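ugh ok so i messed up the first submission bc i forgot one of the chains. this is the corrected input, ALL of the components this time, i swear. 247 residues overall. if the numbers dont match what u have on ur side tell me asap before i send this to the collaborators (the ones from the other lab, u know who)
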Amino acid sequence: MKIIAGNWKMNGTPGENSARLREIKAAVKEGENRVIVFPPFLSVPDAAAILKDTAIGVGGQNCHPRPSGAYTGEVSAAMLKDAGCGYCLVGHSERRQYFGESDAFLREKVIAVTEAGMIPVFCVGESEAEREDGSYGQVLRRQIENALGGLALTKETFFLAYEPVWAIGTGKTATPEDADETMGMIRSILKETGLPEDLYLLYGGSAKPANAASLLSRKNIDGLLIGGASLKPADFAAMAAYTDGDE
Ligand code: PEP
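and heres the new structure output, hopefully the right one now
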């Protein structure tokens, strides 16, 4: 079983996304993989309704850690759950970079999402400079230890996505070998932090039909978090149809 997740980011009006959801519903065939879409908040209720009788899950792209209150513009984990979400992205590099979200704040979000009964899809990843100066191992360790250390994570209730920042939306994909090696390193960091090393690990960063099978066939890669290519229903469906031996 692989996890094929599509992060739509801030794309599509509700009308456009309803059409996209119907196309996805028609194109994605039920199979062995777990398929999830993360539309913008305004399309979450439509996603839940349109995908109701399918195996495709729905997730929020973000939430606030507090359950309610004076946080203008924010959405709580319980609101997402009630609207039909089973998942929520936490710590996407765009949230860290453009909204200044710290490891400590992301830790609160992981707890809130879990307590609301959803699966956090927690993102980690290094910048291009950190990849080039060789400090990426320390960066990944810091992100994991600070946000997740001491939490009771399980394979069934928590997914981790490795998304090298330099590969997101740039067309530059980590080679399958590099991604696999770094994700093996993440498993060691998880173990050394006292967390389960067998968590589902998703790779994200310019994944597309042309490279999906070679990424998914690697030992440490249990799924993909797909941005740009997930907006095209045919491409998303092609990746969702991956089966072992496809490389
Ligand atoms: C993402 O936003 O999580 C992502 C991986 O984007 P892209 O596939 O467009 O690089």
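quick check: The first helix runs from residue 14 to 27. that seems consistent at least. The mean pLDDT is 97.
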